[in-house]
Structures are given as C-alpha cells and as structure tokens.
Amino acid sequence: MARARSEERRGEIVRAAVEVIAERGYRGASLGTVAERVGLTQQGLLHYFPTKEALLVAVLEERDRWDTGGGSRAAADTWRLDLLASLVEYNAMRPGIVQTFSALLGESVTDGHPAREFFTERYAQVRSEMAAVLRAEFGDRLPSGLTPEQAAPLLTAVMDGLQYQWLLAPESVDMPAAFRAFLTLLRGPEEG
Asked: Residue 47 to residues 14, 56, 78: CA-CA distances in angstroms?
C-alpha cells in the first residue's frame, strides 16, 4: 500500500514538473516550484527525487511511456509508418508535452547537461526502431534506393524538426499533413 502511494506521488510530481518545465524551461524550473505545485516542501520532494536531474530523467521517461501506450519503449515490430503518422497527429493535440520535450532536447546538446546521456541513448534506440519500421515496410531498400539504416535518421529528423517548426508557427505548419507528405516521399512514385 505504501509503495503504491509512493508511486502515485512520484507520478504527481512528474506531471507537475512537466507543467513547470513547459512554462519556464528546464533551467527556469525549480524544485521548489514543482514541490509547491504538489503541496510538498523542497525537502519533501527530494525524498522522491534526490536531484533535479533525477526528476528531469523521470519527466523524459514519462513522455516516452505516454507515446508508447504506457509500456517501455515500443518494440520495433509494433510500429508501422501509419502508426507514426498517428503519433504525429497525437502530438499536435498536446503542445505542452511537445514543447517540454523539444526544450529539453535543445538544451541537452550542451556539455554537461543532465539529459544528454538520456537523449544520446534514446536516439540510438529510435534510429534502430525506425530502421526496423522501414525494413518492415520496404524490405532492404526503399524506393529511393536508400537502406532502412540510411533513411532512419532522416525519418527521425523530420519528426523532431516538424515539432520545432510547428511550435514556432502552429498556424503555418500543419505538422500531421507535413509528415504525411514526407511519407509520400519515402514511398516514392505510385506504380500504376
């Protein structure tokens, strides 16, 4: 019972941290602000997350769980290109989460950032998963002649790059439509 309550409280803290980071950015988010949102002192919050970095990683892991339906990172064989398009549509309905992820990703490229290792490992895994998705869809060669391993970083870059463009100009960038257009490029000309 105590363990379940502790996990529930950790979840509340992570959700509050997502909100605070979305509002203020990682650097502007303080443990004190997060603690206040959930009715704890900063010392009380440190009982659940001993450092700001530990909380940050929990926020990033939670975002990935949301994207994979609550489990661990999705197995490569569960994704298909049409499901990736659905994920892009889903992201377009939750700008706060996309903003949090994008801000943390952008900040993580600096030396010593606490999320750098998380994103480095995440992108290695995502590229591998995207290569598997592309291989399942096209075999060993895409219509362009690229291998799935060559196209996987491009697919990943388009997904994340569209998020940045959409966040900056949501009225000008239709993220789901642009991603579907990219899938058309991947699939090549219709055979007829």
From this structure: 13, 15, 37
Is the model's pTM score more than 0.90? no
Distance separating alpha carbons of residues 130 and 177, to the nearest angstrom: 20
- 13 with 45: CB under 8 angstroms? yes
Report how far apart, in Å, the C-alpha atoms of 57 and of each of 129, 150, 169, 173 are.
21, 29, 28, 29
Q: Contact at 8 Å (CB) between 102 and 170? A: no
Query: What are φ and ψ of residue 121, in 5° steps?
Result: -70, -40
How far apart, in whole angstroms, are the C-alpha atoms of residue 166 and residue 97?
Answer: 13
Q: What is the mean pLDDT of residues 77-89?
A: 85
Q: Which residues have CB under 8 Å from 19's CB, separation 6+?
A: 37, 96
Token output for 79:
């994704």
